[in-house]
Fold:
Amino acid sequence: MPAMRLRQAIATAIADEMRSDPTVITFGEDIAAAEGPFKTTEGILEEFGPLRVRDTPISEMGFTGAAVGAAIMGMKPVIEIMFMEFLGVALDQLVTEAAKMRYLSNGTLSVPIVVRASVGGGLGFGSQHSQTLENWVAATPGLKVVSPSDAQSAYSLLRAAIQDPDPVMFLEPRVAYAERGEVDTNLKMELGKARIVKPGKDLTIVALGQMVNVARAAAAKISADVEVIDLCTIVPWDKQCVLGSVKKTGRLVVVEEQPESGGWGSEIIAAVVAEQFATLKAAPFRITSPNAPVPYNGGLESKFLPSPEEVTRQIEEVMKTGKAPQPWWRREGVN
Amino acid sequence: MPAMRLRQAIATAIADEMRSDPTVITFGEDIAAAEGPFKTTEGILEEFGPLRVRDTPISEMGFTGAAVGAAIMGMKPVIEIMFMEFLGVALDQLVTEAAKMRYLSNGTLSVPIVVRASVGGGLGFGSQHSQTLENWVAATPGLKVVSPSDAQSAYSLLRAAIQDPDPVMFLEPRVAYAERGEVDTNLKMELGKARIVKPGKDLTIVALGQMVNVARAAAAKISADVEVIDLCTIVPWDKQCVLGSVKKTGRLVVVEEQPESGGWGSEIIAAVVAEQFATLKAAPFRITSPNAPVPYNGGLESKFLPSPEEVTRQIEEVMKTGKAPQPWWRREGVN
Amino acid sequence: MSAGMNRRRLVQTDPVAQFERALEIREFENQINGLFAAGTIRGTTHLCLGQEALAIGLAAVLRPTDPVFATYRSHGIALALGMTPESVMAEIMGKATGCCGGLGGSMHLCDMELGLLPTSAIIGGGLPIAAGTGLAFQIQGNDRVGVAVFGDGATNIGAFHETLNLAAIWKLPVVFICDNNVYAEYSRINLTTPIEDLHIRAESYAMPHYAIDGMDIDAVTTGITQAVERARSGGGPTFIEAKTYRFAGHSRADQALYRPEGELDKWKPRDPVLLMEQRLIKKGLLDSETAEKMKSSMKDVIENMVKVCQAAPEPTVDAMFKHIWTPKVRA
Amino acid sequence: MSAGMNRRRLVQTDPVAQFERALEIREFENQINGLFAAGTIRGTTHLCLGQEALAIGLAAVLRPTDPVFATYRSHGIALALGMTPESVMAEIMGKATGCCGGLGGSMHLCDMELGLLPTSAIIGGGLPIAAGTGLAFQIQGNDRVGVAVFGDGATNIGAFHETLNLAAIWKLPVVFICDNNVYAEYSRINLTTPIEDLHIRAESYAMPHYAIDGMDIDAVTTGITQAVERARSGGGPTFIEAKTYRFAGHSRADQALYRPEGELDKWKPRDPVLLMEQRLIKKGLLDSETAEKMKSSMKDVIENMVKVCQAAPEPTVDAMFKHIWTPKVRA
Ligand SMILES: Cc1ncc(C[n+]2csc(CCOP(=O)(O)OP(=O)(O)O)c2C)c(N)n1
Ligand SMILES: Cc1ncc(C[n+]2csc(CCOP(=O)(O)OP(=O)(O)O)c2C)c(N)n1
Ligand SMILES: [Mg+2]
Ligand SMILES: [Mg+2]
Structure:
């Protein structure tokens, strides 16, 4: 099994899909000739040529819409939104057009597009280039929302996303683009299915994207036997897997990169609590970023993002007390 | 105390603020000469003239940004996004520019804008004109999100929003524009403060916008003594009020217009569960719309939105069983 | 051949059938107007009175395989392209027999057999999608053409700009048709747009452009044909501004009292349906008597159709969940 | 008077000070380049080498009360407007002494005393905001002018189109300056934009427009003056295209290997700093020897400044919560 960087896994998935399906095309800003600002489309133009692989003007609304139009006429566009924030100039096409097109065509049209976007903090890109912003797309029936955490899941989930007949938002943890991992190109992963990346019996952590590694690192240090679930897909999320795990452990912690308020993690908690209230052994809670813009300064940005140390500390505490601990910014009285 | 329609309460609040503060200005599509597609700006152009009251081209990104610019140069723009969905072409300016401007100016700038948008279903406007979409804006540190439920709260909250030094997203329940209520123009309401619109001791309902009336109607029928909280502000929401209420009742139900997945209600549940897990007497849960686009057909749209009957039924059930009931679409096996 | 395809073929071949279709649209819109005024139908609606020639011209020139992305103001385009009055009216009434099963409503019409993509209620929403259909055809190497129809007001939204630039730089087989009916909601175009001839905006993209008389079916047909042929033969996109006039208000409740006095009267003699009739009579293809008969029988047909639709079934509850996700088909 | 205001006054009055400031920018950017290459600074950065004359010209013509909304590529504009190298460098290093307390970074510079609004890292993000500042001035009835500076690539984003139209229809006192440095990231302008002279896009909005030689400080000053005066005197907005050339890559890691062979060399004799020097010497305001001395002493100054910034304190944790909400002030 070859080890490759996450960004190479992305490029490999696109290439493999383009090879096996001539309707797959890809475009975005500087993804063709320059092979992508994050080199996630290395070799794609060279192999598949300028008809199927294109650079676009800086026109996210225009090219996202173009993807929708191409999709309903038989193509499978995979487009790149360089930083998730740029979807703020194109959201209409994804949420209000693409995700409702099947419904409004009385089921006669499908919109098989994949909108890839790099997300997340940790690289010193500042407050307009470091968020994950799942909330922009998470409450959209008709749209799937997926986020890999390593090279293998990037490869397998992206292939599944491209094969999916409906629009998929594919959130790539930017900080992990350079990370290497083994990739089995035959391994299939299904959208909507979570992965248990570390089994355990005392407490369930649900994490996503770059927080999966944080959760894993914490799990290795925590004295209790923690189960770590890589959610992989936020919409539709794998209720069965999470409920099954919490049924076993009785304890639930969501580790989420988004700010405390308004993120996808509360959805997991609310759903689990509604279904398993009686059997929970401790208060379920979220470990998140604070309600603040992502700071540029390196020290602050590390502090801002949930860290293995913070996760460890909070989980040790809930194991002891059964109560939801305070996050660091309340503990330290800074917010 | 005069009785007025909610839409008149909006116009009155804008007029009163424009009278007392010459920096308040207002613009949007057809809000001046035509006095607003929903007549929420009746009389404003006539009284304040075309310098301060303007019709705009169909350019939501352009005029939302213009509001930001005018705000940092000393004005207080109140702008109208006719239907919340149209923010999909302008989100960048609100979330990525306005809400981060104070932070990125090292505290030297404030952005006192109010972005008004009509929201919600019930009027047969179909899937692209009927959503509430709080999720687009709810996870944005720096941005307040407010929604009135009747003429009084529309008046008082809008005045507070205009007076607020930071950007405020003001979501107006479209279906209630024509509803009348008494308005005390001296009554002040603070952003971030909820209202207990019906006290009770057995169960806490948290509702927002047009769901407040639904919750009230249900509360009147439910055999238990239900407390109904009109949340009024989603960001920052009134934790103290909700926690205080649930402390008393031990039971929490959120009635929310958004689809089941991804709405603001789960945030309330997650926060309450984290803090009051040990004292809850029943599983907290949400009563929402299903995960589907808003249907046009009248019968279906009524079914789609949480109704007093559905709320009553589910709350009677949780009072009996302590368990979260199934929503109608699972009960009826249609989804 | 389906009823819709038959209806489409008619407007493509027979000038009298075109006139009849124009009458049908006119009568349909008048009925809709009455039904909304009476409160029989809920929601909102946007009539195309005065814009019938553009709809007919589109249907006459385009093939059913050329997808059209239009707006909430598309009853006329839907009927012209061949959709049956029943499927459109039932949709507007929210009936299960409507083209979207009653879940879309007046603003959301669709018939893929005839090339009508789901109309969008978002200004500018359809433009990039139409460009995208052209992108698909370019890659597929066929000679299909994507078409976007949108209003004068839509030329001020960002998506318009981005789409025209993208279509131009990629030389996509697309035709952009701006139906300049002088108003965007309650605002006359001059109040929001500092130029008179919108088509000159195409200069920003080095895209061919021209205005056509949107009230004149022949001018419409010629103008669209030229652009469609350019697109089909690999010549890239064209921007057409069709000068029309909105005879009705913007939407259901609007009386259009904001119009300058006399403006409507000035346009009335240019009524596209009237012009069609006059031209057919002049050409000897129609006489006044027949025309009058056609009108009154069309009234009956549409009135009957309305009754049929009123009696049609409502959608069942499960319908609202039916078309959100594509069912998984395993290879 | 603050150090910044003093620095601003200098570039407004003294051509040799302008040259010195251009040298400062040049040296600053070279230092930044080295620091990033060495990995001393994290994140990303965008150099303005080749675009110094535009920055200086802006600062020379505008008053500190005329707000400028620029982009992530604004080290030069910040220094030209008068910000101290320390406040910019410390910001890029994430230090508490930076203009944004180290929370913004290279892409987010701001100094309201000098009229630099927080630069935006979103393409087109600043355009409508600049228009909005003009709206405020129009209502307030003062003679201030709002300015947007953006790249060639930004002329393809929807916000550009919406903003120019809005500014034109409202006759706002705004100047739009497109710094056409030939590239948007790794794409040459001709690959994404089907016209050569971007300023003609203003025709779509009936807005005055022209190109200026962005490498020539005199042309820049004259061109901006004309537009600013029009705006100040109630004549509305202007669109200026400054033709420049990006001498460096797009951002930190970029070697710009995609450039056509010889292109950079062709532009090198048009280096704006070189042209300034030549012109001053020709005018007898400077001699070569002094110029060389200025260069080497500038190098020392900037190197020392870097050391000072490196020794500056990091922001404390509470800083990240300080400027999210405006503290409530009760009347
Ligand atoms: C993004 C967006 N903004 C605003 C609206 C509200 N709106 C609906 S129709 C309309 C006027 C459109 O005018 P025009 O483009 O000329 O088309 P017409 O209605 O005349 O056919 C407006 C502003 C919308 N649907 N979408
Ligand atoms: C909406 C948006 N899309 C894409 C980007 C990524 N991006 C950053 S700089 C850049 C190129 C901009 O080129 P240009 O406008 O010519 O400015 P320059 O960098 O040359 O100064 C791009 C595409 C962005 N920041 N915002
Ligand atoms: Mg119009
Ligand atoms: Mg450039």
In short: Chain B has two domains: 3-182, 195-331.
